TrEMBL record:
Pfam families: Amidohydro_1
Domain Amidohydrolase-related: 54-343
NCBIfam families assigned to the protein according to its UniProt record, in alphabetical order: PRK09237.1
Coiled-coil intervals: none
InterPro entries documented for this protein: Amidohydro-rel (IPR006680), Deacetylase_Atu3266-like (IPR020043), Metal-dep_hydrolase_composite (IPR011059), Metal_Hydrolase (IPR032466)
Organism lineage string: Bacteria, Pseudomonadati, Pseudomonadota, Alphaproteobacteria, Hyphomicrobiales
Organism superkingdom: Bacteria
Protein name: Amidohydrolase/deacetylase family metallohydrolase
């Protein structure tokens, strides 16, 4: 089969294959067709010289809010992905069973970039989130809709990858663990993983982790105090280590209030790397402190994670969390997505959610994306 597109001469970093080499990547019929040096082009093949750039599998942002126009926190997925090198945007609970149909028809289906979703167990998802109105959807238990959530998740398995719930003082008030227990029941019913948001107690970090199952995701995992995974002495809490041991996944979910350099330094110093790096991009953090996915990745690069590890946390690890092994890889036969990155040298100012600044000497920048085997970087 002739190749539709060849990316020629880039540094290919594909953690799914433990590959880090200067080589070519070819695409055909919407999939990765070949990886190798000096791949042959046919007259109709588009060839792009990407020498000097990094070619990674298509970046997956495991935590976004892209129900643009349907929720006040939603941002435009295509604009965000174009600027951030993201080929798969995973919406985490913007929509619930009461409004997922609109999300699917008006946002997901017309989108040129792939959008997958965790379905919120609350009837209308995250409906009251803006700079003027802040309503914790899990605080009102009358909004919990497990029966319809299970039905909608089952009917939309092509797009819905799991169940979402938000617990904590801001999201669930004094409801404690009740919304989490309801969401776990739905996840169990439909055989999907759960993603749990956590903010201020109640409930505590320990209480939430104790209930999560292998394959479930705790997002906002490197939160500032309170509900931080690190002790005052800078060690990792025992319950956190035990949860990882049994298969709970730890996602960054930077957002407006959920990532602190102090916490990250402690966790990384103990060798506790995040399973997945995600932006939690929405209307209240897209202009800072999160900005985008590549900025979130850059923070970890500047804090000492290796570039292959940072890429793994935004590709193959995210794909495994989604249970979509066809994503996050450049193995032949995988979905034909790739991200072109550069590493800029200089002095770059990074800020976390509590206002601490970090001066980094490197910045990851998006230089283009391939989606479905075609170059996609419209301006």
């Amino acid at each position: 089969m002739p190749f539709d597109l060849i990316l020629r001469g880039g540094r290919v970093i594909d953690p799914s294959q433990k590959l880090d080499a200067v080589t070519d990547v070819a695409f055909a019929a919407g999939k990765v067709a070949a990886v190798g040096r000096e791949l042959k082009a046919d007259p109709a093949t588009e060839v792009r010289d990407v020498s000097g750039l990094i070619v990674s599998p298509g970046i997956i942002d495991l935590h976004t809010h892209v129900y643009w126009g349907g929720t006040s926190l939603g941002i435009d997925a295509e604009e965000f992905c174009r600027n951030s090198g993201v080929t798969t945007s995973v919406d985490t609970g913007s929509a619930g069973p009461g409004n997922f149909a609109g999300f699917r028809k008006h946002v997901i289906e017309p989108s040129q970039v792939r959008i997958l979703a965790y379905l919120h167990v609350s009837h209308a998802g995250i409906f009251g989130f803006s700079d003027r109105v802040m309503v914790g959807e899990s605080e009102e238990l009358r909004l919990m809709n497990p029966v319809d959530a299970a039905r909608v998740a089952d009917e939309n398995r092509d797009l819905i990858v799991g169940i979402k719930v938000r617990v904590g003082l801001h999201a669930s008030g004094t409801s404690g663990l009740v919304p989490l227990e309801i969401a776990l029941e739905v996840a169990e019913q439909v055989g999907m993983p759960l993603m749990a948001h956590i903010d201020h107690p109640p409930p505590s970090y320990e209480e939430v982790l104790a209930r999560l199952r292998p394959g479930d995701v705790l997002t906002h995992a490197f939160r500032p105090f309170p509900n931080t995974p690190a002790t005052a002495q800078g060690t990792v809490k025992k319950v956190v280590l035990e949860a990882r041991e049994r298969g709970v996944l730890f996602d960054i979910g930077h957002g407006k209030g959920s990532f602190a350099f102090k916490t990250a330094r402690a966790m990384l110093a103990n060798g506790f790397y995040p399973d997945t790096i995600s932006s939690d991009i929405h209307q209240l953090c897209i202009d800072g402190p999160a900005f985008d996915q590549v900025t979130t990745m850059s923070k970890f690069l500047c804090m000492g994670m290796s570039l292959p590890d940072v890429i793994a946390a935004s590709t193959v690890n995210a794909a495994m969390a989604l249970r979509r092994p066809e994503l996050g890889s450049l193995k032949p036969g995988s979905v034909g997505d790739a991200t072109l990155l550069s590493i800029r040298q200089g002095q770059f100012d990074y800020v976390d959610v509590v206002g601490e600044h970090l001066t980094g000497d490197r910045k990851i920048a998006s230089e283009g994306v391939v989606i479905g085997g075609r170059w996609w970087h419209p301006r």
